[in-house]
């Protein structure tokens, strides 16, 4: 696929996530943001905190990789096998539950609306990284996988992994919000 088109599509997806969180979650009261549909599920803020924990790892890794000099950026990019598998596992369409690492699981965390502000700040960072990525080789393997750092994702794979993972959990948070609205109407 064309690298520029790939990055522009990711940019649009990140902007959509930013808009959803800004308009659907930010106006809610802290009490609603912390409501859990069931004891084992996550609240809206827990969904976003989970994403913040991943962003705290992946965004600095991406920034570091993009800061390193590289040759001219190829016009095309294709996912590696590891990248395709990683992205497929976190796509919102994949209904299979994924096991969350303990350090990435925000269940029972004490969270405030500052979690939303941090998420939105991460989105701004990600948009800047996507702009910066236009001048690099997206196929360069440079991003250690968070849970097994000996494995490395390419820059393009890591960018799409982060975005798809965010879409999955923002959609999860949206389902929580919709359930809250239904319960409040009853």
Automatic annotation (TrEMBL):
Residues 25-173 form the DinB-like domain. Pfam families: DinB_2. InterPro entries: DinB-like, DinB/YfiT-like. This is DinB superfamily protein.
